[in-house]
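Entry 14. Structure prediction run on the chain below.
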Amino acid sequence: LHVQLAGLINGKNHPSDYRGIFKTSEVDANFFLINYLGHTQESNKTFTEVSAIDILDGKISPSIFRNKIVLVGTQTKEDSGDYVYTPYSRELFKNPKLNIHANIIENLIKNNAIVKASRTFDFFLTLFLTSLVIAMVFRTTPVRGVAFTSICALILVVAGLLSFRYLGVWIFLA
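Output returned:
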């Protein structure tokens, strides 16, 4: 359903048209890593929410829905099934499923899901950095070797964070 809704906006109608979509052998389904637009918790509204009561009472103009995808559902504190855990919060009743579905559809429309760096890239990055550190450690004093290793580690972490934040690419740092 998410792909069909996004396809109405961007014209992409097949899951393989989207960035980052992958399948697993255990389940016959498509997956991708959600690039959240912001915190998913209720207190941080990323998407406009409208109460059904306000619509029925005429407090909300129907024009607010023009050219929009509208998700309809519940968010009650009585039903934990209306909420899920996300990377932003592991607290119960904090992350409405409607918000997660809105993020999924937004990712598909913008085609900006998170992509994992390939294992080959990770292998060669690790090989390069390890070779560089070993070469430097053997050619310098122990203090400079530790300092160089620390600087390389810091550069790798910062590069990984920047890559994730601005390019949507997840580099495995372990």
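The longest strand covers residues 22-23.
Filed with the rest of this week's runs.
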